[in-house]
Amino acid sequence: VAGLGNYGLWGTRHSVGMEVLDRVARQLAVTEGWRMDKRCCADVALATAHGVELVLLKPRRFMNLNGLSVACAAEIYNLGPEDIYLVHDDLDKALGKVAIKLGGSARGHNGVQSCISALHSNKMTRLRIGIGRP
Description:
There is one protein chain. The protein is α/β, with parallel strands linked by helices. The chain has one domain: Peptidyl-tRNA hydrolase (Rossmann fold, 3-Layer(aba) Sandwich), CATH 3.40.50.1470. It is 25% helix and 28% strand. The strands form 2 sheets. A 4-stranded mixed β-sheet has the order 1-5-7-6. A 3-stranded antiparallel β-sheet has the order 2-3-4. Strand 2 (35-37) and strand 3 form a beta hairpin. The longest helix is centred in the N-terminal third of the chain and has 12 residues, at 16-27.
């Protein structure tokens, strides 16, 4: 599960994916488990939910390069694009609205486009978090 965003720019609308992952880590009681993984230039926490092993990932790159970290982590943990969930902001959704999308185009989202390019696939499931237009 990759929370897309601009690392270090907390509280901005484009880093909502990372904030969702922080909330998930709290819910799964793994907030102390975040570690910087230099191999993929990301913060990583391992968790288990309902018997499923999860890799939580917050890339330490700007949004348009998040895919490099996601692809590297996919290789390290032997995951295919269909195993990856991207959590990201969506300008076209009203603030607080949430939608799940399976595959398809990036719809202009630079972080998603970076993941599609780096993984050579658009098969990732996406959790789109509405941030509305400013």
